[in-house]
Amino acid sequence: MAELYRRFGGGLATIFLALVLLWIAGMVLAPNVMMIDYALRPNLPPAQIGGPNDVYSLDNVLYLANEAVHRSIFFKTIWASAFVAFATFVVCYPLAYWLAQHATPGQTAVALIALTIPFWVNEVLRTLAWYILLAFRGPLNALLLSIGLIDEPVRWYGNGGVLAGMIYAYILFMLFPIYNAVESLEKAQIEAARDLGASTWRIHWRVVMPHAKAGIATGCVFTFMLAAGSYVAPALLGAPGSRWFTQIIYNWFFEGGDWNRGAAYALVLLVLCLAVVLVTLKLARVNLTDVAK
Fold first, then answer.
1. N vs C: which end of the chain shows fewer Cβ within 10 Å?
2. What are the TM regions of this chain, as residue ranges (predicted)?
3. pLDDT tens digits for 109-164?
4. Is residue 172 assigned to a domain?
5. Residue 82, in any domain of the structure
6. What does the DSSP 8-state code read for residue 58?
């Protein structure tokens, strides 16, 4: 803060701070406070709001604990989001390492442009492209039929389609943090480990990954949070047996008309996601300052 006042002076720095605080209060604190308020109050007709029945309680939260189907979908969403983060890491780590340590500047530019351009398109349209790709008579089934890997078209929609769509949708949120972290690693450290007889796997496990742990943790946090809160991919690529917890929240708000219970479900998802993120950062020994970088 002292640096801010030094660079911009008292008046301009105060304006900047006031705008930031206003944004935090209006866009972060106020919506979450309202969500907590809705979650702890019953869903009542307008005439009864503020009356003797309008009291704070944990009934909406306990409803989730007692609803077996919703509870199972909730935990499935958490585990599936963790799998999305892990699978995205497996896909992105080799590419990030190659871009940061072996690719020429021209190859890096071409690869990053090729990866970035599709994300100029809206997420809904990109998910619809996956919908077409995985269709019963889509290109994927046509290719597999033509090379003889399957005898009849396969219905790819469901958990597999949702996970594939999410891994693709959030790949850049994993790639760039890892790339930025690995890029700062001196090649001499890798060469020294190799000269000392370390295998390729050991070099990555003992040298590269510890150096890039902040980028890895950041990418995992981003992809996990985005996957847990995703609605488009489950809605378009899912099946009746592959519902996501966000779909239940959507149904409470816009189909069931019970904003209080929907807010309680959203609050539980938010709290557990934050807990998972904080535990992940603790295990990786990465603090929030490293993530913010």
1. N
2. 12-34, 78-99, 105-121, 128-150, 156-179, 214-237, 262-284
3. 999 899 899 888 888 888 888 888 888 888 888 888 888 888 888 888 888 889 99
4. yes
5. yes
6. S
**Strand boundaries in the chain, DSSP class E:** none
Query: Comparing C-alpha atoms, which of 238, 251, 245, 242 is closest to residue 268?
Result: 245
Which residues constitute the domain of residue 279?
A: 70-292
Residue 272, classified by CB atoms within 10 Å of its CB into exposed (0-12), middle (13-18) or buried (19+), is middle
Q: Which two tokens stand for residue 262?
A: 């929907």
CATH of residue 268: 1.10.3720.10
Residue 33 lies in a domain: no
CA–CA separation, 246 and 104 (whole Å)? 42
Q: Which helix (H) or strand (E) holds 287?
A: none
Say how many domains are in the chain. 1
Angle between helices 159-169 and 68-101 (to 10 degrees): 40
Q: Residue 19 is which amino acid?
A: L
Residue linked to tokens 């304006």: 15
Does 42 map to a domain? no
Backbone φ and ψ for 76, nearest 5 degrees, come out as -65, -40
